[in-house]
Amino acid sequence: MYFSFRTKDGKEMPVLLNGIRRERDGVTVIDCVALQMRKRIEHEKDIMQTKQRLEALYQETNEANQRLELLHTQYEKKQQELLELNEKLETLASTDPLTGLKNRRFFQEQLQKCMATSQETGEAFSLCIIDIDRFKSINDTYGHPVGDLVLSQLAELLQEQSAADSVVARFGGEEFVILLPELEQEQALLAAEKYRFATESTLLGDLHITISIGAATYSPEETDQSLLQQADQALYLSKNNGRNRVTHYNA
Question: What are the residue numbers of the active site?
Fold first, then answer.
């Protein structure tokens, strides 16, 4: 219950009276406590201020968490963008810009991996070097744009004719190289002949062209450079023996 007392000097003093019924020595009594309302109000103000501070702190914490989540999302987005950029840069670093094939650097890396695998497992592999016959005359007669078109379409044709595990790359100029995992000499010759025939039988742009191919099969004593030299020597023989043919290197 609420009461209003009066002090000696006549001022009103509001109080809150709390009472509880008890049994004491067989007598029913009511114990009362009178609390000045001013103290209660101050106490309630303290409680309210504490509550407000807690709410403000909660709000600040919530906003901080939201900012943190936003920063985390932005970080993940930037990280993903960086990964994608790195992948694009890696692709650009290993791709020939004209034909879209892998470039010489990538091919040589894969060649060394094939050598390491062959040394470990004993599996054979071969490679081919392909050169467009009389390509200079194509550029001189029809111009470099036509020559570039021939290179691009031949690259697409070679890729289409290759197995999924083969590596087709532009080696430079009008030369292409193809890595043929797990193929022995006879199988490599068949694969190379397939490339030669497909090229001879396909119209590239408005032109029929032919290619000469040199092939070589890896043996444990070879290095990447010596294997490429063998294929290059076989290509030289294909050129000298009339072009539009396949030759495998024989030591």
Answer: 174
